[in-house]
Design brief:
The protein is built from 12 helices and 11 strands. It is an alpha/beta fold and about 270 residues long. The chain has a single domain, classed as 2-enoyl-CoA Hydratase, Chain A, domain 1 (Alpha-Beta Complex), CATH 3.90.226.
Length: about 270
Amino acid sequence: MYQHIKQSIQDGIAQIVMDRPASNNALDAQMFRDLIAAVEHCDADEAVKVIILTGAGKNFSAGGDIKEMATFEFISYELSMLTGQASLALRKCRKPVIAMVNGTATGAGCGLALGADFRIMTEESCLLTAFSNVALPGDTGCIYHLHQIVGLAKTIELMALSTPVYGEEALRLGLATQIAPEGKLEEETRAFAVKLLHRPLGAVAMQKQLYYEVFYRDYMAYSRIEAENLGKAGASADHREAVTAFLEKRKPHFRESIDCADACIIKNNGKTL
């Protein structure tokens, strides 16, 4: 049914798996489309009560496919809007969505994990924004989700520095719901899903609607700005250098500065200071 998304249902719990383990579940446009379709299918299926989102293999997702980025035609306004819609699909879904974060959730993978209602991690699990590492401002609503959870100051830090956030720190910041012992992530996530099955899910669905209508009412406006910025950054010399350096296994040398016409000129009585 889907190219790199697997979906199964057992005892009211749907599991959606990003399934490109050879590339650490790197995401391309088709995977985002398929993920949206899988979530919407689960939302409409009355047999599904709770959804678990995870990645096949060792990692949740490596984010955007670096090989696709190397074409320098991958990053675009249209792609960014698609990533934002995928993340939003998790928020709009009436069913509780749990991100089972195996290994690392990087870049767009991090944004998807943050779009879920709950995140179950281990001490070794890691959330990593990583966008600035490839000279991109972000996608999948990552900034929006982070701000909702950790506030503006911490969001700025995590986005600018791409600081990895591991299990216990994620729990302290509210980015993780629960930390599972190593080797028991799937067991603990399933137990958490079963716990949700015994809650009044009609009321939970109404709560999710309230969260969306109140706290995400300006998400699409944000998403359009996010997409415009990503499109510009994707065409930048810094992005080209970051991707090239990654593939050549060296440190990038960033050269671009803020556009002075937009951000660095102070005018006084028509004169530039």
